[in-house]
Design goal:
Rossmann fold, 2 domains, six-stranded parallel sheet, 16 strands, globular
């Protein structure tokens, strides 16, 4: 199987005995792509009644729950933990939970451990897999090398231009090399788009399979739109973390450029929170900031949008883009990262560089017939994506590192 082959193409019989999986996600309750995927992964295991243990950080102190074949072990982060971004934290003393985790693993008897990244939880999972001689699977959810470079921009701006560029590349390359060294401990890797799969395979020497994302097309549905048919105001939507990694500064530039060109019948609807929220509020006084939304409230917000504007260059997939498409909202994204693999340029949205976002938005707002055609195409595309097919593919890939278990349990 090549790195660019989808795990969905692997043959798997989900009615046959499957490996017992201990899953160590970086986040679970937070608002981000890792947590979103992890909640759906656990939900899939519950629907299929698969042997699945989720070891995660949370508020339920040292809580172990056994519901059928699905077990959860939720452990608190302590007073030494510090904030990475709003609700994202890291606890350097999380290793104090090793005795309890070891006890639960001994009872659960996993066949493999699956981690989602180099957090304290991921490092712990990788170490336990090595100690227990269990195969390790790892999925890549965050472009840590690009995030490192973005986070260093405040420092890079202090340097002369030629030094700033070279230093930025050095930071990104060092972060990638460090991440690759960590991920090379796994027997099999997963990534959300072909480009990342190829990158990981080159840098780690490990096989990588596609792990795309699914969408709940019943929850995210155009029928949730609450606006009247004669409403001529156009709503430009953004959903995600309000931080430098998401390139949210471009939203301000878009507002200013549309104002200068005389396009005034629009406003931004911004869903989420983050370190740049106050900065955005100051510069987008007409925008509506909802904070974090979930469930029906989030679905309604999507459906009320006319265009989804997502300028991130660092997202590995873009769950929010797929949710927008399912809601019948065309998306405008950059040529970098995962979202461009979801959007069909000219069909379900536009793929343009930063300096063409305003032109693309103005063009679509000025062409209602084309916009309506894109709305229908966006919904049709999203209907073909399901979470069950994603996780069936993951279990098929598990079989490539655990053939003995699959045979022994038949």
């Amino acid at each position: 199987m090549t790195a660019l082959a989808s795990v969905a193409s692997l043959a798997v019989d989900m009615t046959a005995p499957v490996p017992r999986v201990a899953y160590f996600p970086d986040s679970f309750h937070e608002v981000n792509g890792v947590a979103h995927t992890s909640r759906h992964f656990e939900g899939f295991a519950r629907r299929r009644d698969l042997p699945f243990l989720c070891v995660r950080a949370g508020d339920r102190a040292r809580a172990v729950m056994e519901e059928g074949n699905v077990w959860t072990l939720e452990l608190p982060r302590g007073f030494l933990s510090f904030v990475l971004e709003k609700d994202l934290r890291l606890d350097p003393a999380f290793f104090r939970h090793i005795p309890l985790i070891g006890e639960v693993l001994q009872r659960f008897q996993p066949d493999l451990i699956h981690i989602t990244g180099p957090s304290e939880i991921g490092i712990l999972g990788a170490g336990l897999a090595h100690h227990l001689h269990l195969p390790l699977a790892a999925s890549w959810h965050t472009n840590v090398h690009e995030y490192a470079a973005r986070r260093a921009e405040w420092f890079l701006r202090l340097l002369p231009k030629h030094q700033s560029t070279a230093t930025g590349h050095a930071i990104e390359n060092l972060a990638m090399a460090t991440a690759a060294r960590f991920y090379s401990m796994a027997r099999v890797l997963f990534a959300p788009n072909p480009e990342l799969c190829a990158l990981l395979e080159r840098n780690t020497g490990r096989p990588c399979h596609l792990m795309p994302r699914g969408v709940d097309a019943e929850l995210f549905h155009p029928a949730k739109r609450m606006r009247k048919g004669d409403d001529r105001e156009r709503i430009l939507g953004f959903v995600g973390r309000l931080s430098i990694e998401k390139n949210v500064g471009l939203l301000v530039q878009i507002q200013e450029e549309l104002d200068r060109t005389g396009v005034t019948n629009f406003r931004f609807l911004i869903v989420g929170h983050g370190g740049d929220e106050a900065w955005l509020r100051d510069r987008l006084p007409q925008a509506e900031f909802t904070g974090v939304l979930r469930g029906e409230a989030l679905a309604t917000a999507y459906a009320n949008m006319d265009l989804f504007v997502f300028p991130s260059h660092t997202d590995t997939f873009g769950n929010v883009v797929l949710e927008a498409l399912a809601s019948g909202v065309p998306a405008i994204v950059t040529p970098d990262g995962g979202p461009r693999t979801i959007v069909r340029d000219g069909g379900t949205g536009r793929i343009v560089p930063d300096d063409q976002f305003t032109e693309a938005i103005a063009g679509l707002l000025g062409d209602p017939a084309r916009l309506e055609q894109m709305r229908r195409a966006a919904r049709a595309y999203a209907l073909a994506a399901s979470w069950d097919s994603v996780f069936e593919g993951i279990y098929a890939a598990y079989g490539t590192i655990q053939p003995r278990v699959a045979v022994a349990r038949r």
